[in-house]
Write a structure and sequence with these properties.
The complex is a heterodimer of chains A (469) and B (480). Chain A has helices at residues 54-66, 159-175, 216-235, 281-289, 295-306, 310-318, 320-332, 336-347, 362-373, 379-392, 396-403, 409-422, 424-432, 436-450, 457-468; strands at 4-15, 70-71, 74-75, 78-81, 91-94, 101-102, 105-107, 112-122, 126-129, 136-139, 146-152, 188-198, 208-213, 243-248, 253-259, 269-270, 277-278. Chain A is an alpha+beta fold. Chain A has three domains: 4-286, no CATH class; 293-392, no CATH class; 409-468, Arc Repressor Mutant, subunit A (Orthogonal Bundle). In chain A, the strands form four sheets. In chain A, strands 1, 2, 6, 7, 8, 11, 12, 13, 14 and 15 form a ten-stranded mixed beta sheet that branches. A three-stranded antiparallel beta sheet of chain A has the order 5-4-16, with no helix packed on it. In chain A, a hairpin with a 4-residue loop joins strand 7 (105-107) and strand 8. Chain A is elongated. Chain B has an eight-stranded mixed beta sheet, with helices on both faces. Chain B has a three-stranded mixed beta sheet with strand order 1-3-2. In chain B, strand 2, helix 4 (103-110) and strand 3 form a beta-alpha-beta unit. Chain B starts with 7 loop residues before the first helix and ends in a 7-residue tail after the last helix. Chain B has a single domain, classed as Amidase signature (AS) domain (Amidase signature (AS) enzymes). Chain B is an alpha/beta fold and 480 residues long. Chain B has helices at residues 8-16, 22-35, 49-61, 103-110, 153-160, 177-183, 217-227, 262-267, 274-286, 302-317, 336-347, 350-363, 369-391, 415-419, 426-431, 460-473; strands at 42-45, 72-76, 114-119, 166-171, 186-189, 209-214, 257-261, 290-294, 395-399, 435-442, 448-455. The chains are: A alpha+beta (469), B alpha/beta (480). At the A-B interface, loops of A face helix 10 of B.
Chain lengths: 469, 480
């Protein structure tokens, strides 16, 4: 392995977050009953014509701007012709010669991966393989869903880098509001081109392509498997053939799908049903102004303005949903350090993954932290309250009544008097100790213990100081 | 009132003024269609036509107004009318039922039309004689031993034989004008984009248009005002206001600059049409038009240009007929590949297969630049040449065909001979300009010949004025 360089290029398809499909007015929605979300256009009935959804073009421009792409002033849609049962028209409307975006790059920890292009195309339907008696059925609901295809230059050199690239790409698309990238719904799919060459050699090896990998894990495993397979061939004196291979996740191996000689000639030509799309500079600048902060910009702000650590800001920005949550809590309760501590220690241990919706609203979390700050509830009780809100769906208001300040006033004063009276040694300690605060805290602890945390903490402290004087 | 003698405009007026009912008019035409079934112009007479005519009569009594209220119309078999078959005269779509209305059908229905039948055509509009129909050739309305032209042969024959006051055709390379010429009727291919193509089964998307076929020019202008207009379903349709084309008809052509193409003067030499073409130019001059010689130097290349662009688009457009989703699927097919190969082999006729192969060839890698790209560049060059020509004239006149309708079977063996049928008509499709054919003069057997009037984009009005003038003042020349 050490004697070889691995050369990897990716083609990434992401479903765009539009309301309707790319060439018709059907909803862009996942999970509906088969063939209930289609129309003459997206099932390719005779006579139907595509009408471009401008929003999809705008989203691709947006994606391109977050990666420093050059936006073409004229984009052209072309037909990619091939027969497959899920492709209703026997051609896919895509872009070849004039895509929307050219160039661009994504920075990784240790390197820059250059992009070749980003273009807009339509998704195909889906084959559903049933029992032998029924055979294969086709669901055209996905047909015509807008897809952006991003193609990298072969700048990636390991499975780790590929995953890092995809992680950063996914983050950007989600942050920019371009795509939701729901992997389990096929919202982000990846084709991987892999070749190997002798270390340091300038000459590229023969590449193979693996199609439609739909998890980062399978991308990682597929790259390693394929690189090893190619190295083994070369080590045994063989030659790698150019082919398309299919990754079989269940058996952790790739199998040959088709060789280059039998691959399709797609006979691309400009779609005569569509007008070329003019993209004026003003539009690009208008879109640029709507771009939200990208994760790297947010991280910088968290570190420089909020004083968070690199580690903390990295976790908070990993998922847009989480950084949005964090920012919103801050809008109610402006104590970044404290909010960060609570999110990282108390909240994230109660969610399965970072993109999951957090079961306490930002405003309730802010209220809870304010209760702690005002010493209306103790920190320990606040943690209990948080758990009960997040795990049992209980209401903050009800819990506040239960926990906060239920022992107060004269009753609390009487209790403090009893404790002070029953502990003369401690009282003596307080008056003579070098560290009276330690003793003071022991007294507050006793009060809380006796009231099972339901004492008004501010008042309790006031009474203790008064009686210990 | 003799229904068969009334023009479209007169008929529409009589029905809307309730001097005639839609029911009696529709009944007259349906009976006429049945009587003339020997012509094989129609593939189906819609059996609910009389019911819809009665409903329309009720609506008219209730105050409904529409340009086509109660008027029977025939459509070409590649135009979708919801709930009715649309086979494109192909075995492949033998039982295909339209799932939605095309824009042109919707516009006609909105104006109250009664669509009574679908007309025969060359399969998928590929051909110039209707001999490529899977349902038998249509006969020429004036001489049953001859072809009606094509691909809109059924529509042109239907109007000529009086089966309806108007029929719709489609024109990709002359498919409205050439059959109109052969049957002695009037047809226009409008400016590209003037009429929406939504719901019209595509052959060559970038050059084809729907257009009306009528017995006279005014009816044609009247009908185009109904059909024209941009559609939100068709990006290539022009979002330009539709004029009242009748208002352009002034009955006068004095001072009109009529362009005569140098290249046409050459091309007509020795052809059957030469004499009447020259008479036409003379007629226009005698009536006050100024004759200007202009040039489109690459005129001769319009034919090869067309036979690259059209098959390229066709091969892609016809890909969706794959046997997977609707219509024909071969009973022999055992797997997906066989569904494709066998269904298409059984379902498509010879000419369609030929053009699919041609199209695949010119688009394939290694040949794309040499053929398709070159043809598209040539198209741009031709458009530039025509712009220059139109700087010096208002309209161009040229023949529609080389001669009168040929005998059925006469050109069966040689596809290139058949392709030459479109020599004079293809230019307008490549340029995207409007072009109308009207009868002018007779051929050797006394059958009508056609004259084409071509104008720059969106100048249909100019064309109608000239054509109407010729029709009304051309005497024997203009008489069929």
């Amino acid at each position: 392995m050490q004697e070889y360089d691995i050369v990897i290029g990716l083609e990434v398809h992401s479903e765009l977050k539009t309301n309707s499909k790319v060439f018709c007015s059907c909803k862009n929605q996942f999970g509906q009953a088969p063939n209930t979300n289609c129309c003459p256009v997206c099932v390719g009935l005779p006579g139907a014509l595509p009408v471009l959804n401008k929003k999809a073009v705008e989203l691709v421009i947006k994606a391109g701007l977050t990666m420093g792409c050059q936006i073409n002033d004229l984009a052209v849609f072309e037909r990619k012709n091939y027969f497959y049962p899920d492709l209703a028209k026997a051609y896919q409307i895509s872009q070849l010669v004039r895509p929307i975006c050219l160039g661009g790059q994504i920075e990784l920890e240790d390197k820059v991966v250059r992009l070749n292009r980003i273009h807009l195309e339509e998704d195909a339907g889906k084959l559903v393989h049933c029992s032998a008696a029924i055979g294969t059925l086709i669901d055209y609901n996905r047909g015509g869903v807008p897809l952006m295809e991003l193609v990298t230059e072969p700048d990636i050199s390991s499975a780790d880098e590929a995953v890092e690239f995809l992680t950063r790409l996914r983050q950007r698309l989600i942050y920019a509001g371009v795509a939701e990238c729901k992997m389990e719904q096929g919202g982000l799919r990846c084709d991987v081109n892999v070749s190997v060459k002798k270390k340091g050699s300038k000459e590229l090896g023969q590449r193979t392509e693996m199609k439609n990998l739909n998890s980062f894990k399978s991308v990682y495993r597929a790259i390693n498997y394929e690189a090893n397979r190619q190295i083994e061939i070369l080590e045994n004196g063989g030659t790698v053939v150019q082919e398309t291979r299919k990754w079989d996740d269940n058996h952790s191996r790739s199998v040959s799908m088709r060789k280059k000689e039998t691959s399709s000639d797609y006979r691309y030509f400009p779609d005569p049903d569509m007008l070329a799309v003019e993209i004026p500079r003003e539009d690009v600048e208008r879109i640029r102004k709507t771009l939200p902060l990208m994760p790297d910009q947010l991280r910088k702000r968290y570190v420089e303005e909020y004083g968070l650590s690199d580690y903390e800001s990295e976790i908070l920005t990993r998922e847009k949903a989480l950084s949005d949550y964090f920012n919103e809590v801050l809008s109610f309760y402006n104590n970044p350090k404290e909010v960060t501590n609570w999110i990282l220690t108390e909240i994230l241990n109660k969610v399965k993954d970072l993109s999951e919706e957090i079961a306490i609203s930002p405003s309730d979390l802010a209220k809870l932290l304010k209760l702690v700050e005002d010493k209306k509830v103790t920190r320990t009780n606040a943690k209990e309250m948080l758990a009960r809100i997040m795990e049992n769906g209980e209401k903050l208001e009800a819990l506040e009544k239960e926990y906060a300040g239920s022992v107060d006033g004269d009753a609390l004063r009487a209790l403090v008097e009893t404790i002070v009276k029953n502990n003369p040694n401690a009282v003596e300690d307080y008056r003579t100790s070098d560290t009276p605060e330690k003793v003071f805290r022991w007294f507050t602890g006793q009060v809380m213990k006796e009231t099972r945390g339901k004492a008004n903490a501010t008042k309790a402290e006031e009474f203790i100081r008064e009686l210990l004087k | 009132m003799d229904i068969g003698k009334l023009s479209l405009i007169e008929l529409a007026k009589a029905i809307s003024e309730q001097k005639l009912t839609s029911y009696e008019v529709t009944k007259y035409y349906i009976e006429r269609c049945q009587e003339k079934s020997d012509l094989n112009a129609l593939l189906e007479i819609f059996d609910d036509s009389l019911d819809r005519a009665s409903e329309m009569d009720e609506k008219i009594k209730g105050g409904f107004k529409g340009k086509l209220a109660g008027v029977p119309v025939i459509i070409k078999d590649n135009i979708l009318y919801k709930g009715k078959k649309a086979s494109c005269s192909s075995r492949f779509l033998e039982n295909y039922v339209a799932q939605y209305n095309s824009t042109v059908v919707q516009k006609m229905l909105d104006e109250g039309a009664i669509i009574i039948a679908r007309a025969n055509m060359d399969e998928f509009a590929m051909g110039s004689s209707t001999e490529n129909s899977a349902y038998g050739v249509t006969k020429n309305a004036l001489d049953p031993s001859r072809v009606p032209g094509g691909s809109s042969g059924g529509s042109a024959c239907a109007v000529a034989a009086g089966l309806a006051p108007v029929a719709l055709g489609t024109d990709t390379g002359g498919s409205i004008r050439q059959p109109c010429s052969y049957n002695g009727v009037v047809g226009i291919k409008p400016t590209y984009g003037r009429v929406s193509r939504y719901g019209v089964v595509a052959f060559a998307s970038s050059i084809e248009q729907v257009g009306p076929i009528t017995k006279n020019v005014k009816d044609n202008a009247y009908m185009l005002s109904v059909l024209a207009g941009g559609s939100i379903h068709d990006e290539t349709s022009l979002k330009v206001e539709v004029p009242d084309y009748l208002s352009y008809i002034k009955g006068d052509i004095k001072g009109l600059k009529v362009g005569v193409l140098k290249e046409i003067e050459e091309a007509v030499k020795g052809l059957e049409v030469e004499k009447s073409y020259k008479e036409a130019v003379k007629f226009l001059k005698d009536n006050g038009a100024e004759i200007v010689e202009v040039s489109i130097p690459d005129f001769k290349l319009t034919l090869p240009c067309y036979y690259i662009i059209a098959p390229a688009e066709a091969t892609s457009n016809l890909g969706r007929f794959d046997g997977v989703k609707y219509s024909r699927r071969s009973a022999e097919a055992k797997d997906v590949d066989e569904i494709y190969v066998k269904s298409r082999s059984e379902g498509f006729g010879k000419e369609v297969k030929r053009r699919i192969m041609l199209g695949n060839f010119v688009l394939s890698s290694g040949y794309f630049d040499a053929y398709y790209n070159k043809a598209k560049k040539l198209q741009q060059k031709l458009i530039a040449e025509s712009k220059k020509a139109f700087e010096n004239c208002d309209v161009l006149v040229l023949p529609t065909t080389a001669g009168e309708a040929f005998k059925i079977g006469a050109k069966g063996g040689d596809p290139v001979e058949m392709y030459k049928e479109d020599l004079f008509t293809i230019m307008a499709n490549i340029l995207g300009t409007p072009a109308l054919s009207l009868p002018f003069g007779k051929g050797e057997s006394g059958l009508p010949l056609g004259l084409q009037i071509v104008a720059d984009r969106l100048n249909e009005g100019l064309i109608y004025n000239v054509a109407d003038f010729i029709e009304n003042n051309g005497g024997d020349y203009a008489r069929v």
